[in-house]
Amino acid sequence: MRKLFTAAAVYLGLGLIAGVFNREFSRALDFTGSTQLSTLHTHLLVLGTFFFLIALALDKVFGFSANKGFGGWFILHNVGLVWTTGFMAANGSVTMLSGPEAWGPMFSGIAGLGHIILTVSFVWFFVLLNKSVKRSERTRAAAGAQA
């Protein structure tokens, strides 16, 4: 459970920093357009902070961090989220500095891999959660049968 809490706290910090960075970088460059930097803090707060806080609550109820694949899932989700948001930060910065045409299709393809990693991570999360819910149901049924 400590891992989930720590991850939520780290993504809270990163999300808040991303919001301030977007505001100050835009102001310094006198940039008024839209970039991926403007949604970066939302991605970090929702897919990082809120997601891990919800996972923390689910772990408290169902103990899904006890599942065999939890460590691998945790690493994969963080890699996917850092990959995705890192490319969002790069895309937004390049757009502000050089214009949207400076970000080529090759970079978009590489950035898209982060979304694929996150998709696999979400499916894996639900597999782990499903195992935990079933285990919890069996435990409660066994406890009810003994009563």
From TrEMBL:
<keyword id="KW-1133">Transmembrane helix</keyword>
<feature type="transmembrane region" description="Helical">
    <location>
        <begin position="38"/>
        <end position="58"/>
    </location>
</feature>
<protein>
    <recommendedName>
        <fullName>DUF2871 domain-containing protein</fullName>
    </recommendedName>
</protein>
<feature type="transmembrane region" description="Helical">
    <location>
        <begin position="70"/>
        <end position="90"/>
    </location>
</feature>
<keyword id="KW-0472">Membrane</keyword>
<dbReference type="InterPro" id="IPR021299">
    <property type="entry name" value="DUF2871"/>
</dbReference>
<feature type="transmembrane region" description="Helical">
    <location>
        <begin position="110"/>
        <end position="130"/>
    </location>
</feature>
<keyword id="KW-0812">Transmembrane</keyword>
<dbReference type="Pfam" id="PF11070">
    <property type="entry name" value="DUF2871"/>
</dbReference>
